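The data are passed on as follows:
___
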Amino acid sequence: MHTKTLTEQENAGIAAVIDEVTARYRSVEDPELVRAANLYAHELPRTLREFMATFRLDEPSGICLVSGFPVDDEQIGDTPSHWEHKRADALSPTFRQEVFFLLCASLLGDVFGWSTQQNGFLMHDVMPIKGHEKEQLGTGSEQLLWWHTEDAFHPFKGDYVSLMCLRNPDGVATTVAEVDDIPWAELDLDALFEARYTIRPDESHLPKNRTADAGGDPARAALLDAAYARITRLEENPPRRPVLTGDRTLPYMCLDPYFMATDHLDERSRAAFQQLIAAIDQALKPVVLQPGDCCFIDNLRAVHGRQPFEARFDGRDRWLKRLNLTRNLRGSREARASSAARVIF
């Protein structure tokens, strides 16, 4: 794991940048702030920028952890009961934390959101929601969240999925497994590099969980309909793809076993896949995020999940912020309203 704990001097420099941002903007959903985030990010302390650049360019690990950013548990208020209560034009009690998270993330790539997730917000809230306890969702609790590549089914999946911890009183663990810890020489790489496998959309994107609102805008409504039509096509007829790509000595991964059928596979492909799953299970380790931690997961070099837990539903539950990042924003241009837009339909 690539780790850094912020010093008092670094936090002072970071606070000055955040002061400037929060004096001018009110929300991380503001397109003008999203556009300017990369510029503000390059005013962060050089030591932090160098640390993030090393993670992005040298790939020393599949996990990057920045710790030590202050979080006042009383000031941030209660853990929300649902993300639907969020308003893009309201000043968030966690705005300073959100700005720091956004700026750090912008050192790795461009933030983006999904029209089919959390109503198109760029920054997601991750906390237990009543009714989701047994679902394969980040907002679930009682059921193990299977390890996976984030949005593995989608051609425009991100390069990084990022989590910032605001509260975690019960020490609920995020689980991670990195490519560096998998014995690749013992696996059938020839089969795993072949386009034989299918991945269906995960629960959060399915039309049955549709919450996006077009707001009376016919153009947006058409884009939303097209987005869910794409999801339906991927659900009904997922394309065949490899689960491994890149360098055979240290491959990139793309898989989500909970949503991958194996009945169509030949014996060799099925066996190779099962061996890979077993190897990742062996490499899986817990990471307990603390308030102020920003965890950046390389979506090609690591998988992640979450251990089950009993939700409190008393305003004190585990609370994370989540961002998706891409190093190739242009790759999704066909599914965005404009070249500057960050929401994928």
In short: Residues 218-236 form the longest helix (19 residues).
